[in-house]
Amino acid sequence: MPDVITHLTLFVLAAFLGYSIITKIPATLHTPLMSGANAITGITLVGAVVVAGSGSSTLATALGFLAVVMATINVVGGYLVSHFMLEDFHGGGR
Amino acid sequence: MAELFSEAVLRLIYLVAAILFIQGLRDMTHPRTAVRGNLTSAGGMFVAVAATVLWFEILSPAVLVGGLALGGLVGAGLAVKVEMTEMPQLVGVFNGFGGGASALVAGAELIEVQAATFPADMAVAAAASGIIGAVTFTGSMVAAGKLHGVVTGSAIRYTGEQVVKAVLLLTALLAGAYLVVQPDLLASTLQGEFVPAFWVLLAAASVLGVMLVIPIGGADMPVVIALLNAYSGLAAAGTGFVLNNTALIIAGTLVGAAGMILTVIMCESMNRSLANVLFGGFGEEATAEEMDDIYEGNITETSPEELEMLLDTAQRVVIVPGYGMAVAQAQHAVAELAELLDEDGVEVEFGIHPVAGRMPGHMNVLLAEADVPYDMMKELEEINPTFSQTDVVIVTGANDVVNPRANESDGSPISGMPVLNVGEAGTVVVNKRSLSPGFSGIPNPLFAQDNTVMLFGDGKATMQEVVGEYKENR
Questions:
Q1: pLDDT digits (tens, 9 = 90+) for A41-94
Q2: Dihedrals φ, ψ of B245, to 5°?
Q3: Cα distance between residue B415 and residue B270, in whole Å
Q4: Ordered alpha helix ranges (H), A23-91
Q5: Are A75 and B73 within 8 A, CB to CB?
Q6: Cβ–Cβ contacts within 10 Å for residue B175, how many?
Q7: Distance CA A80, CA A83 (A)
Q8: Scanning every residue of chain A, which has its alpha carbon at the shortest distance from the alpha carbon of B264?
Q9: Alpha-carbon dihedral sign for residues B352, B357, B361, B367
Q10: How far is B285 from chain A (nearest CA, A)?
Q11: Helix (H), strand (E), coil (C) string for B261-304
């Protein structure tokens, strides 16, 4: 199954890439980093959209709907709180 | 609905989204570019979701639009309303929703796809995503509840704790294993057969999430929040394996890495292993005699007036904030004092311990909100060598992170933990409500040191008094 291998490759490469970028982020920005990274996990919304929008069984559609709501809260809320926090840091304060 | 573009195009759009996420994270390495980075990342999200909505055959647009609108309203509403001191619990809640959504998507996909056509590797990924996602959801809710004071912040321990956790994990894993082997055993299984096992898996993992976080004390939450963040990323990556979606794999893995790195940083800052945080307790109870031994006759009290006089002649002042400052909402008064001192030519810096607060970097955000300039905030390694050239250190609401016993190998719970060596400064002023021990439960010999004076009182009220005194005597 070439797909699994490709996906594993991506997974490992992304892990190394993430490590090298994120270790460079200063402690001061760790809270906004966390909420921003958190918002990125909302990418699961892409999957939720597929399931909710094209679900052929009622149960799948219902689960998909719930997943869309939860993921959207994660995405919208996560990016917004990060934005508000980072604006406070903007220009180094004052 | 006719397809607007081919699947290859959709995949390329996901690649663009992944690049935007990566560039967004890269911009987070400096406060100057961080706002742009966040917007870049949000742009990646918009592109990915919009392309998905357009590409897929939408059978029930009302369901989709309704879900998006409802989630968007709730998320935005919470984000606008939140106080900076409440940020850790809100991030916890959002995190939980992300993990929960991943678990549900994996489950829904299991139900959708015919059992016989569901390959084993996808079933493994779905089981992993379901378990991790459910643990993340309930664990985050408990963590948020603890931080918000809805659930008790103290550690709830009971006998057989580890056994209960092991049984729950085993149950979830067995249900997951059943999902994986089932298609091979019964090739003609109806799709309905998948559902019960997945429900068992979700239920066991959900209870496990609660049981994992309930025994952990509120002060260990920085580690828990960081770890759950890593979990939610891994759950999303797992869902990516199920859905054959590269955007989910890359984005989820990046977040998983971020969470793991922060978890390690938090553990190192406390000189404890992750296992110790998750499964062990922290702290002995300080006995009254031990506290008396150290404190009796050695405590010098001071007043805001006296602190003001100290500050009048000081050339360099370092302020060390702790969670007590956040609880007292004293950050604005503290920031004002720093600003006044700075205006009068005094060198002012903030020394911030990595685990001060309830999530990584929490203190920095509070201070930034109070308009403290970014370059005034110094990390532990940076500020420690400067204490010997500092006239006055003001410790406000911090305790364990300035305890010199950490530097002694006396077998105390904080032995070996890196701390701010404030005792090396000319005068240390400790603003605290009482002599009560901090989270570690041990007394702090710093308070009894010759160059330490105690400024008892509520953080906010006391700091406001100091600011008032200082303004009067300028």
A1: 999 999 888 887 766 678 888 888 999 999 999 999 999 999 999 988 865 444
A2: -120, 115
A3: 9
A4: 30-41, 44-54, 58-89
A5: no
A6: 22
A7: 5
A8: A23
A9: negative
A10: 31
A11: HHHHHHHHHCCCCHHHHHHCCCCCCCCHHHHHHHHCCCCCECCH
Round to whole Å and give the CA distance between A33 and B150: 26
Angle at B82 between CA B77 and CA B88, to 5 degrees: 120
| Residue A9 in contact with partner chain B when CB distance is under 8 A | no
ipTM: 0.93
* Catalytic-role residue among B220, B400, B410, B458: B400
What's the gap in Å between the CA of A84 and the closest CA on chain B? 9
Tokens of residue A52, six digits: 């909710």
Q: Out of A3, A30, A79, whose CB is closest to B262?
A: A30
Query: β-pairing, B347-352 with B377-379?
Result: parallel
Structure tokens at B9: 């195009």
pLDDT given at position A94: 40
pTM: predicted TM-score of the whole model, two decimal places = 0.89
Structure tokens at B71: 């989630």
B400 catalytic? Reply is yes
Asked if pLDDT for residue B323 goes beyond 70, the answer is yes
Residues, chain A: 94
